[in-house]
Amino acid sequence: MFKKSLLLSTALIALISLPNIGYSEEPPLEQTGTLEKKMTQEQINEETYKQLSLFGGVFETVRAKYVDKMTDQQLVEYAVKGMLTNLDPHSDYMTAKDFDDMKVQTKGEFGGLGIEVTMQDGLIKVVSPIDDTPAFKAGILAGDLISHLDKKPIMGMTLADAVDKMRGKVGSPIELTVRREDVAEPIFITIKRDIIKIKSVRYRVEGGDIGYIRITTFNQNTYDGLQDSFDKIKKETNGKLVGYVLDLRNNPGGLLDQAIAVSDAFLDKGEIVSTRGRDEDAIKRDNALPGDLADGLPVVVLINAGSASASEIVSGALQDHHRAVLMGTKTFGKGSVQTVIPTPGGGAMRLTTARYFTPSGHSIQAKGIEPDILVEPAKIEQIDEMRIGEVDLKGAISNPENTAKVETPAPDADKGKTESKDKDKNKAEKDLAKQDYQLARALDLLHGLSLIKAGKQ
Q: Is residue 234, in this structure, part of any structural domain at all?
């Protein structure tokens, strides 16, 4: 839908091709001005040579006298990394391996087994097998402990090392030695690696009439995943939809083109985001195309301090166009764009090259986006209380619409109970509220809006 060469995540970047640098001759200057400019440039060049001489001297000294022998490649990489990381928190140097890992993350797919893992007591613990992957089909279960890979013990490996070994060429086999609870002997499972797609979008239907969509990161599969979620939610609700919750909490960002595409999914027109580099006059604007995948239904976007970069582009666009209600807490405040420039040797430099602005022209850099409705994380606990109403009073007159006799209950007979018609109306939402207060408030808001809309019809 949109193809960009920039990215915004604190952790996820995309490879781009830099534009060619053009040359234009400036108008001739007066002789005095030209001489002054020339002298100034000569002074600048002289100072630059001094600094480069300083770098060369330090390089040679470290190379000759540092307590441990270092390769020239290591020293140059450290120097480049130091220069970039001192510019700002998001500029950095990536080695060839780091660059390859980044491309895997942004592409959203790799050759592997299809399991989410963590480290426990020196072994790999399976958090969850991913549906329809080789690991899932081979019978790997959540909670399994992997002790060996191709009969080589995992003990002593880092989590990253173990993950690297499980990834590999599509079609190549690997044997896992699995320890499973209540199974005395180890289980040996051989699995053939396949293409694993990183699922950045998950969905479910809440209460039978609200579509919940969670985006964990913005990779190359995000917009496709969003489209698929819309289709499945509409099919499952069968015309009963009253609104959507878009959950961007703890989403660190990702690809710019995917942030624009996700914003466009909810917008029918208008600017989504603008980016400005060193030359403030060179402004690039991205606008929405006709079409709203949410069909104009109300949208609540959940945000928090972990919502950064691309998440803030989506939040800012929907807020400025009054297309969604933002609920939660203030976002992270990363309003810069990074460009990835490949370097000799297979590495790359990640360089901050622009700032982005919301449709209203505001930069959220170091400020963040304030929610429309502030909802702090909380936990709801039901407290038993005695409730007394008119019906409990001795001699209360009857309701003319109710022919049944009004009876006074025995003392304490209804203690800890409620006469509210809304109690236990939706057990699923009640349980959810205890687990996720912010989401529960979003569901309440959408149900409230649907009641108002129904009352006006």
A: yes
pLDDT tens, residue by residue, 261-294:
999 999 999 999 999 999 878 899 999 999 999 9
Active site residue 197: no
Residue 34 lies in a domain: no
Confirm whether 320 is a catalytic residue: yes
Single out the residue of 307, 285, 222, 229 nearest to residue 259, CA to CA. Answer: 222
pLDDT along the chain (457 residues), means of 10: 43 31 33 53 86 95 96 96 96 94 88 90 88 91 95 92 92 96 95 92 96 96 97 96 97 95 98 93 94 97 96 98 98 95 95 96 96 91 74 80 53 45 46 78 96 82
Range of the domain at 150: 111-197
Residues 124 and 190 in one domain: yes
CB 258 within 8 A of CB 14: no
Catalytic residue among 91, 309, 311, 315: 309
Residue 384 covered by a domain: no
253 SS3 class: coil
Count structural domains, the chain.
3
Q: Of the candidates 167, 197, 227, which is a domain's last residue?
A: 197
Same-domain check for residues 152 and 126: yes
CATH number at residue 214: 3.90.226.10
- Please report, for residues 157, 229, 449, the alpha-carbon distance to residue 164 in angstroms, rounded to integers and kept in the order given: 11, 31, 49
Q: What is the reported pLDDT for 185?
A: 96
What is the dihedral sign for C-alpha 134, 228, 204, 9? positive
Task: Please tell me whether residues 126 and 182 are part of one structural domain.
Answer: yes
* Distances 428 to 198, 233, 436 between C-alpha atoms, Å: 29, 17, 12
pTM, two decimals, is: 0.78
239 and 348 co-located in one domain: yes
Catalytic residue among 4, 334, 336, 436: 334
Q: Which of 92, 144, 286, 320 is catalytic?
A: 320
Decide if 26 is inside a domain. Answer: no
- List b or e across 27-48, with b for residues whose CB sees 16 or more CB atoms inside 10 angstroms: eeeeeeeeeeeeeeeeeeeeee
CA distances from 159 to 85, 119, 163 (A): 25, 6, 6
pLDDT at residue number 399 = 76
| 309 belongs to the catalytic site | yes
- Look at residues 375, 400, 421 and tell me which one is the last residue of a structural domain: 375
Kind plus residue range of the DSSP H or E element containing 443: helix 437-456
Cα–Cα distance for residue pair 93/311, rounded to 1 Å: 24
Give dist(CA 136, CA 147) in Å, integer.
Answer: 18
